[in-house]
Design a protein that fits this description.
The chain is mainly beta. The chain has one helix at 2-32; strands at 40-41, 49-50, 60-63, 66-73, 81-87, 98-99, 107-115, 118-125, 132-138, 149-150, 158-166, 169-176, 184-190, 201-202, 211-219, 222-229, 236-242, 253-254, 262-270, 273-280, 289-295, 306-307, 316-324, 327-334, 343-349, 360-361, 369-377, 380-387, 394-400, 409-412, 420-421, 432-439, 443-450, 456-465, 468-475, 482-490, 493-501. It is 6% helix and 47% strand.
């Protein structure tokens, strides 16, 4: 009898351990599956929680595995305050909500930037009787915050700020009414990480018309600014740059110039590649569409406009762009599925904006999902937005852990004799491996990774490639140990190989 009891207990323990092992493996697999993972609710209170309603600002920033989110929230009274939240494991788990502002006035439309361990936030605040631009920072990655710093002091009002940081130089732009009731684009900078600030600089030099929604993005000493401008009688997109970290600025450059209207331009920079997205009325049927253009030489010259969305019965709004290496990500809200309900959509380019994938619907609920923002770091893409599914607006988040493929390199421009897919090396590997392949004919190329159940784990290449030999790095750190398969598809050619990941 005693032996029987021992055997039964042993069987029970082994069964529980087996179930736990299966659960852990399933969870690990789910955490590394390609495409977008389930929605995560970041706020949970009966008050109003909103991301920035103006797309020139940025409500999400990421660096490595740390993701920073800002929003404004009325949980503390009728007037909203600025709140912050972070994840230090790539968006899997999230810390507590942190209240950044503490006053009885209206604090709204925050924008966030990160440089190393310093996190910078700007917002508009009417504690002084009209809207002014305020700033705060954390020097330890978002754990603790300093005191609010007032950046603008004028009687006319300042609003809709945007912030960018490159090293210890911090750049801020905003819309300011001191010289025009239509508003002008203004700029100021800090060269010591936000401790001290220089003078206000008017960067829209033309005095005719107004400007709206200025955006800023810096890469090293080159600073790029963008805004909507009405000097020609319609709403056009204007651009300006500084090559000495914001000390001096070049001339205003029109990026559009016709009788159509544009709204809410947004910008992101990766090295010398500058990417912009904006709403455009040229295809009014019956709403705005999202257009894109880019510069590959730091803003000196620009590509033609490219239409990213094609609808005939709906409108695309609130587009936001983020660039990471050769990957460009765009999110927006769209009512194509219901005239009375907006959902979040996404699309990407993996070759610097030359070609784009299909639209991907990110949300599926019967209430409004609006005002999205996107960021990418490592191999992950992060999206945050405002969502009304709970009866009031809350902040929601989701991620694609392998949606920002890195490491594709053209290693030989000579024309190969045939398609081929090489064995990855090293193999087994931990956690990165290199996959080489040959393309003898230009065209659409797909390189994807699958698990043993045939589920897609990562889309490494999905774009139009020129002839040549390529290598692609894959980082499997988010996946469990095991056997995986990678498949190359191009112009009727298909080949699959096996690889082993051992932690």
């Amino acid at each position: 009898m005693e032996l029987k009891n021992i055997m039964e207990k042993t069987t029970t323990v082994l069964l529980a351990a087996f179930i736990l092992l299966i659960y852990s493996f399933t969870f690990s697999i789910n955490s590394c599956l390609a495409q977008w993972q389930p929605d995560v609710r970041l706020t949970n209170n009966p008050a109003l929680s909103l991301t920035n309603q103006y797309t020139n600002g940025r409500c999400i920033a990421s660096s490595g595995d740390t993701v920073h989110v800002v929003w404004y929230d009325t949980r503390d009274g009728a007037s909203p305050e600025i709140y912050y939240k972070r994840s230090i494991d790539g968006g899997i788990n999230w810390g507590a909500d942190t209240r950044v502002t503490n006053n009885i006035y209206f604090s709204s439309n925050p924008s966030v930037a990160v440089s190393g361990s310093v996190v910078h936030i700007v917002w508009q605040d009417n504690r002084n009787g009209n809207y002014q631009i305020y700033y705060n920072r954390s020097t330890n990655g978002g754990i603790n915050w300093g005191t609010d710093t007032r950046l603008t002091i004028d009687s006319a009002g300042s609003e809709t700020p945007c912030i960018s940081a490159s090293g210890s130089v911090v750049h801020v732009v905003w819309r300011d009414f001191r010289n025009s009731f239509l508003g002008g684009a203004y700029y100021k900078r800090s060269s010591d990480g936000g401790i001290n600030w220089g003078a206000d600089t008017r960067i829209k030099t033309d005095t005719v018309g107004g400007s709206w929604w200025p955006s800023i993005s810096a890469s090293g000493s080159v600073v790029h600014s963008l805004w909507m401008d009405s000097r020609n009688g319609q709403q056009d997109i204007y651009y300006k740059r500084s090559t000495d970290a914001g000390i001096n600025w070049g001339t205003d450059m029109p990026l559009t110039n016709d009788t159509n209207h544009r709204y809410t331009p947004t910008m992101s920079v990766s090295g010398s590649n500058v990417h912009i997205a904006f709403l455009d009325s040229r295809n009014w049927d019956p709403g705005y569409e999202i257009y894109y253009k880019h510069s590959t030489n730091g803003g000196i010259s620009w590509s033609a406009d490219m239409r990213l969305t094609i609808h005939y019965t709906s409108a695309s709004l609130h587009s936001v762009i983020a660039a990471s290496g050769s990957n460009v990500h765009v999110v927006w809200d769209d009512n194509r599925n219901s005239a009375t309900n907006y959902e979040i959509y996404y699309k990407r380019s993996t070759n610097g904006g030359i070609n784009w994938g299909a639209d991907t619907r990110l949300t599926y609920d019967s209430s409004y999902s609006m005002y999205p923002f996107v960021s990418a770091s490592g191999t992950a893409v992060h999206c945050v937005w405002s969502d009304y599914r709970n009866g009031n607006y809350e902040i929601y988040y989701k991620r694609d852990p392998s949606g920002n493929p890195i490491g594709i390199t053209n290693i030989n421009l000579e024309i190969p004799s045939s398609f081929s897919l090489s064995q990855n090396y090293p193999n087994p590997f931990n956690p990165t491996t290199v996959i080489k392949f040959d393309i003898p004919k230009s065209g659409e190329v797909s390189l994807k990774v699958y698990d043993v159940l045939g589920r897609e784990i990562a889309s490494l290449v999905n774009e139009n490639l020129k002839t040549g030999s390529y290598s692609m790095d894959w980082n499997a750190s988010q996946c469990p140990s095991g056997v995986y398969f990678y498949r190359l598809t191009a112009d009727g050619f298909k080949e699959t190989r096996r690889m082993i990941y051992l932690k």
